[in-house]
Structures are given as C-alpha cells and as structure tokens.
Amino acid sequence: MAYSSYSNLSRAQLTFEYLHTNSTTHEFLFGALAELVDNSRDANATRIDIYTEKKPELRGGFMLCFLDDGIGMDPIESTHVIQFGKSNKRSPESTQIGQYGNGLKSGSMRIGKDFILFTKKDNTLTCLFLSRTFHEEEGLDEVIVPLPSWDLKTKEPLTSDPEKYAIETELIFKYSPFKNEQQLMEQFSKIESSSGTLVVIYNLKLMDNGEPELDVESDHQDILMSGTPAEGVKPERRSFRAYTAVLYIDPRMRIFIQGHKVRTKRLSCCLYKPRVYKYSSTRFKTRAEQEVKKADHLAKIAEEKAREAESKRLAMEARLGDDLTKESRAILRKVQDSAMMLRRDADIRKRNLEAKQKALKEPKDLNFIFGVNIEQRDLDGMFVYNCSRLIKMYEKTGPQLEGGMACGGVVGVVDVPYLVLEPTHNKQDFADAKEYRHLLKAMGEHLAQYWKDTNIAQKGIVKFWDEFGYLSASWSAPPSSELRYKRRRAMEIPITIQCDKCLKWRTLPFQMDAVDKRYPDSWVCLMNPDGTQDRCDAAEQKQNFPVGVLKRDKPTAEDKQKELADKIKQQQEKLQALQKTSTIKSAADIKKLPLEVSMKPTETSGQTTRSSERSATRPRSPPLPAHLKNATSVPASRAASQRPTRASAAPATPPKPEPSRTRAAAKPAAKTPPAATKSTPKASANATLSSRSSRASTKASSVKPAASAGQRKRIIEQEESEEEEEEEEEEEEEEEEEEEEDSEEEIEEPQTKKSKMATAASSRGKVVEKAPPPKRGKLEEDKTHIQAEKKGISSPARPPPPTPTSVPKAAPSQQQGAKEKPPEKSQQKEPENDIKNAQKDKGLLVEVRVNKEWFTGKVIAVEANKQSVRWKVKFDYVPRATPKDRWVFKGSDEVRLMRPPSPNSQSPDTQQETERGSAPMEPDTTQPGTSREVTDSLVAMLRTMLRYFFPPAFRIPKDDVNSMTAEELIAFPLKEYFQQYESGLQSLCNSYQSRADARAKAVEEKNNNTELKLKEADEKLQKLRTNIVALLQKVQEDIDINTDDELDAYIEDLLTKGD
C-alpha cells in the first residue's frame, strides 16, 4: 500500500503539556542536572563548565549554563534533539550513557521553563530554542521549536526560506534573554574550541517560599540544594560538586563548577584495604537469552519486510520497462529507496542479533570492590553504577542493615552493564526491581565475606577506629584533626589525581609535608614527584587489587537438625508461657489464647522451675568446648534445679495442692515402680504428672516431726529412696523428651502432643513448689536461698543429706536455732559482696571465640556462685548460623577483654559506672614469668634498635650503647632520642623536597621559555606567509589565496614547474 494513502489517517500528537509531564520523572534535582553532563560525556568532551550568570529580570534571578568542548551538532543532527525518543547512541556495542533520546528535554524542563542551545560543528552554527513561556504566551498546544543556523565564517543564515528564518529569530529575540543577533553570536564565541555545545536554562523553577531550588549564593564555588540542612544529609544530596565528583566510576572529563575544577574521584582508589570479588550469576544469562529472542524476532520481521520491498521493486522495474516518463521515474525511485532502506535496516537487525548471540556465550561476570572509608566512616554503603554512570548510592545491604558496627564504614562499588540491568529513564533506579534486589543480596553476602577477610572484628572494631582518630562515641562524628591521625590516614590512602592535559590518573608517593596540601586545578604530570610517572606519554598505572573469594558454608545435616530442634524448642517455650496463665486441655484452648504472652517470671515467685529456667533463661549458644563441658563448676541455672536444693528452695508460703487430684494420683503412683517408666517411653504427660504429684504428697506426709531416732532413721531412709527414684525418673523423662524431639525433627507430630509435653514439663516444676519444708532446722538456711533467688541470684549447691548419726543434732530447739543465726548472716554477706562485685562486670566490652573465630560483644548479664562467674555476651555481629548471644565463664580461654575506649567514646552509662569504680579484675597468672634469657634477648634487641636509628650528634656516644646494662637502657632518654631522630629525618626530607622543587621550577621555566620561543617562531612564520602572499599579489594581481594550505600548494606548484 502506497504511503500517500495514509495521509488521511489520524496521527499521534505531542502536546505542550507533555513538556512538564516528561520533566516530573526527575524527583532528584541533581539527577536532572546530571542528564546534561551525561550528554557532554557522550559527545567525547574533555571539559565541561557549569556556571551561572545573574539576570535579575528573569525568574530565579540567574541563568544556568552548561558549556562543553564535545563534537557538537550540525543543523540536521540538531533536529534529532526535538524528536522525543530519537537517539543515535542506541546500539549493542555502545558504551554511552544516553539510550532513550529524552535526557536533554526532561532534564532542562525540570530545572527551568525555557532553554536555548548553541552548538558548533564543522562550518555551521546552530541555535535551538525550546520555551514553555513562548507556548503559554502565544496559547499554543503543539510544541514549536525555532531552529535557525548560520555559516561559521560569514555569519550568514543557512536557509532557503528567509521568511521562516525571520520568524524564528524574532521569536528568539522576544522570548529569550538575547535580544539581537549580536548577542547570539557572543554566545557562539564562548565555544572556543573547533566544536562544542552551550545550553542556557532560564526562568528557573521556584520553591513554595519563592526562592529558587538551586542555591548559588551560600557557596560561590558550588551549586547547592536549597532548603537542605548541612547535617544529617549525605554531601552528594546537598552539593552538586560532591555529586559530580562520584558521578562516573572512571572520570575522563574535567568538570568545572563556577570556574573551579571538581576534584573527581575514583572511588576504588579512595578506600582502605580495597579488595575485589568476582561474581557470576545464571540469572544474568537468562536475561541475555531473552534479549537474543527479542533480537531474533525483530531480525526476522525486518528480513521479511526487506524481501517484500525487493520483490515489489523487481515487479515495478519489470512493469515500467522502457517507460522513461518523469512520473514513472519518480515512482520507481521511491520504491527503490524504500527497498534499500529496509534492506539496510534488516542488515542492522542481523548484526544486532549476531552481537547478542556472541555476548550470550561470554560469561556475565561482575566485579564487586569493597573497602573501608577511613576519611568519613558514616558515609558507607553500596555505589551501583550502570555503564560507568552512578545510579544508586549509599545502599545498605547484608550486615549493614542490622544497624550495628559490623561492616560499618565499608563502601562497595560495582559497575553493571546494560545487558545485566537496565536503568530507568531518570537514571536514579533500575527498571527490574527483582533483579536489583538479587544484586544487592549478592553484594551483601560478599560484604560479609570481606568483613571476615579483613579481620577487623577479630582484632576489635573500637580499637580499629581509634587508630584512625575516631575517638567520639557518636558514629557520625568526624575523626580527630590531630596531625598524627591525619598522617595515619594519609599513609594508608595515597593521593590519586588526574592530569589536566592528558586526563590520565596518577598516584602520588606519600610525603609527610603533603598532608592536607591543596593541589592546583591545572595539575599536570610534570608536577609528579614520581620520576616514572612525570610525563604525559607515560602509561597509566593499572589498579591491582587483591582478589577475594566468597566461601559459602553449606548447611550440614547436623545444622539442619539443630535448626529444626530450635524451632520446636521455641514452640514449646511459647506453650509453657501460655500455661502459666491458663490451663490447656485441648488444641482448641490454644487457639483461644492471646498470641503474645510475657515469659518474664513474676516477682512473687521465690524460685523458677527447672523447665522454665531451661527454656527461658538459657540462651541459644553454639556447642561449648570440651574443657568447658567438663568444668567442675555448676551453672547457676542448673544448680537451682538439682536434687539437694529442692527442699531448701521451697517458697515461704507454698500453695496447697488440690486434695482431689493428690488422692486420686497417690494410689497409681505408689503401685508404679521406677522401671515402669522406662518400659513406656512415650507415656502421656498426665500419667507423669499424677505420679510426680503423688510422690510429692507422700513425701510431704512422711516428713513430720518424729519422737524417736528410729522414726527419724526410717524417715531419712524413705526420703533417700524416694530421692533416688525421683532422680532416676527425671533422667528417664529427659531421655523421653530427647526421643520425642528427635522424632519431631523427622515427622511433625500433632499440636496436642506438643501441648502435653509442655504441660508435663511445667507441672514437673510445680511439684517442687508444692513440697513443704521438711525440717525446722533448715528453715533459716532456706530463707537465705529464697532471698538470694528473689534478687535474681541462684543459690550454691547444697551438701548431701546427713547421716543417721547426725540426725539428733540436726533437729535443735528454737534457742539453738536463734544462736546459729549470726554466723549464717555473716556467711550470707560474703556471697552477696562477691555477687555485687560480679554484677559490676555488666557493660564490659569483650571478645568471645566461637568456632575458632573471635567476635566482639558486650556483657549484658552476670551469674555468680562460689565456684565461678558466668557472663552472658551479646555479639555485635555473628554469621546467621551462629546465635547472637551466649554464656561464657569469666577467665576462660574463650573470652578476653577489649581495649577500653577513650573517655570521649564512652556512653553516659559507662561513664557513670566508671565514676562509681571499676570492678577489680583478677590478675592473669596463666602466662609464664620472664626468664633471664628473654630479658637478655630484649636488651640485645633494644641495643640493636638504638644503634640502627641513632641520630647524628646525639649527646650520648653511639659506642656507649653496646656497654649499657638493662638498668641503664631503662633510663635511656628515648623521647629526646626520637625527637632528634625525627628532626634530622625532617631536615633530610626538606632538603630532598627543596631539590625537587628547584628541579621542577627549572623544568617549568625551561618549558615556558620553549613555549615562548615556539610562539615567536609561529608568529614569524605567519608573518612570513603574509609577506609571501602580499608579494605574489603584487606580481600577479588576480591571485586568490585565503588559507595556509592553499599557499603551500601554490608554492609547491611553482617549485615543481621550475624544476
């Protein structure tokens, strides 16, 4: 079907309102400014100047200008600017940033209402004017863009329609800041290079208070975001200079803001201990396959269209034959052109398909670079680039999301190609959110590996940051400005600077006096102190980072089993907490209970039960080492549940058992022997409860005051037999619980079975509370234990029951009991004092070894008894498979104290505890004492060190050091020694620096003289050429020579003819 038949069909139109709608994609204003910087970079510009010009009559009071020395545009290429979505950069091999053909329009319209563009290329000057003010004033709905052009030399308009040119210039003079053609030419003259572009944006958008969104008054060397506070905001969100400094991963363009050069950064060169990790994912391959399918589909369609057009061309040529009329030739030419264009398009699509198929076979790898930002540790996170352009910054991932000190200060950098992730139109996010989340997750895993590889946590996080001058407790506080800390930071991160001529990056050697030195904007390779890199023709040094490897810990069967057991245990703990407030008879009762129940024991209870202590107070910890398992000391939580302390740990006013339950359960319990429990390992919890309660009632009834020693003996023997039976039954019940947990790991049991187990566990603890005190002689000691337990301290283990011979003495009268009270009080005060001292350990910063690795943490709870003291340590960061807290024994090999922080870094609570007095630490007696051999070797090493660094003209002769004894070496004036050594070293460095400065100055003067002579020679040569032309014109008046090339060709022609 002929194209002419489409003339009556409706066409899509671009309305004026779309200019504003299109600009709203830029929520971040600096992102809109960056669109214009991206265009300059894509145009191969080596320099871009971003500056403002004051114009009080315009809205906002100033114009924003972008001037570059790129390739520019001719009049035909300039028409692509006003075509939305038209881009010549979209190709498979393209590494340019722009892909959508929309950045200039959306970015400029976000900044202001109007912009005018001046561009120069070859011998043409072109002006493009896009103004919303013009459309509003004229009441236009369509988008009209004046586009006049001129000849570079003659400044004459390049147009075949003078009327059109007159209308275009008249609109520009009326609605732009430039009111005549002379002012337009002045703007073209600002493009000093042979080609380039100038974009002027005016009538800037304002905030609600009438002020412009961009602040150019607060800092005359920068462009700031108005209304943004200086504190609490990342510098790249407030300062356009800071944002452009990290805008590109490998900057190759000089950026000047308000006439001052931006110190662009290669982020990977600004980090401490950088390390690169290779990453590859099959998910990226899937996306590449989708791209190949899409390209294959488009290539097939283009091939079919090209064949159809060629067939139509051949048919047209055969039909017209020898018909040479003008109309026939026009129709044939149109068909031939259409066939040729479609064939060209099919070839492009085919090449695109081949390129994507080739890329599909190549591995899709990404390089994750991590390093520590020791200059400003609160500026951490991931910087994600796309084709070298910054898309996302300060993205937290992995351990950084937990908010602790783990991985704090670490910066990650990655450059993602288009084939992996495609950015959104505003270049502030990625189009595929799912793929982006997958990328961040992968970076988080590698970040945790980097943190482990650097060993910062194992050495101590606080100690690490103190070394670089971070002495404050506030994470966002800047580091210390003392000279020693500045030097320490400067030694670890060498200065990397870009040459102003060749644009190559150079790494400067460390110099003591170069700390905080300000380098000029026009720094060149000639100023480099490194002799191998002081020339522009020297190759740029490649970045060589150590390569790290992600070590994935695959979960073993034991880990899976342990995780499942932990989940089952958590469910049991919830059920036990529910049973403290309500009686559960069936699974239906569980559904009626509230979801969240407090697991904190009430203050009135004198002692927690064995089951509740085991489930609520014991933290989930990794398996203890063998020497801790076999330790003689008994943990406090277990000591409270051991058999000898049950009678003493009873409350002062025990609750009375229900008579019906006790009597009903007493008979079957008396008949059931202990072996019966073993034969029925999966008996119901109700039977266990009845047997336990019956024995408790039997024991309560048997323990009564006896008149004779024989009765007492029988009572004691009965108690001992009952205790042995009870201990055996407890062990058997624990075995049953372990068997049930193992079976629950393999096969999930019904909810009712879990509730029965929890009921049995909780009722087993209640039996202890129901047991009354057996003897009045032990009452006072029981009170002591009860008081200690009310304060959260478990009582020490009680000795075994007395022998029959000591029974009469164990039952004293009230007067004897009264006499025994004072020694009991004194015995009670001693453990209380020890316990108070032990409680002062709370808040200590310690390091605990878990699975052969050290992790930092804080003591949050302390348990003490006569044998040992236990600390509960909460870790700052541990891997996911490791619990976040654990109990350790104080003084063991598994725990060590961290270096105490400086006074400035202590929190108020810590400072108060320090003022009250620190807990006395036990001296370390495990280390061997220094022997004579060790002392002699240390003395010899000190002598060698003193001789090696001995400064010249020191007041003590160098030879006297060899004969000094250990006592004389202790009194050696080391401070004076190192001061004189440092001053001598400083003078030596100063002399070298002076020589280097003199040499650089001489070379610079020589270079200036050479440039001056070269300039004089050029002037003489130009004058000579002018004289030759004048002489030739006198000899031959009709000669016409305008350029140097024409003159050279004419002289060469004369010499050839002469020969």
- Total strands: 23
Radius of gyration: 44 Å
Main sheet strand line-up: 5-4-3-6-2-1-9-10
Q: Provide a count of the helices.
A: 33
Bulk shape: globular
- How much β-strand is present in the residues? 5-15%
Major sheet summary line: 8 strands, mixed
First-last Cα distance? 67 Å
Which structural category do the helix and sheet elements fall into?
Answer: alpha+beta
Which blocks of ≥5 consecutive residues have pLDDT under 50?
Answer: 596-622, 624-713, 740-826, 901-929
Mean pLDDT: 76
Portion of residues in helices? 40-55%
Brief sketch in words of this structure:
This protein is an alpha+beta fold and 1059 residues long. The protein has 33 helices and 23 strands.
Strand and helix map with partners:
Elements: H1 17-23, H2 29-42, E1 47-54, E2 62-68, H3 75-78, H4 103-111, E3 112-121, E4 124-131, H5 132-138, E5 149-151, H6 162-175, H7 181-189, E6 196-204, E7 214-215, E8 224-225, H8 235-238, H9 240-245, E9 254-257, E10 260-261, E11 272-280, H10 282-320, H11 326-361, E12 365-372, E13 381-386, E14 389-395, E15 410-416, H12 433-454, H13 456-459, H14 461-467, H15 483-492, E16 496-498, E17 505-507, E18 547-548, H16 557-579, H17 587-592, H18 610-617, H19 626-629, H20 636-639, H21 659-671, H22 674-679, H23 685-702, H24 709-746, H25 751-770, H26 779-790, H27 814-819, H28 821-839, E19 845-850, E20 853-864, E21 869-875, E22 885-889, E23 895-897, H29 908-916, H30 932-948, H31 966-970, H32 974-1035, H33 1044-1058
Parallel strand pairs: 1-9, 11-18, 13-15
Antiparallel strand pairs: 1-2, 2-6, 3-4, 3-6, 4-5, 7-8, 9-10, 11-12, 12-15, 13-14, 16-17, 19-20, 19-23, 20-21, 21-22
Helix pairs in contact: 1-4, 2-4, 10-11, 16-24, 16-25, 21-23, 23-24, 23-25, 26-28
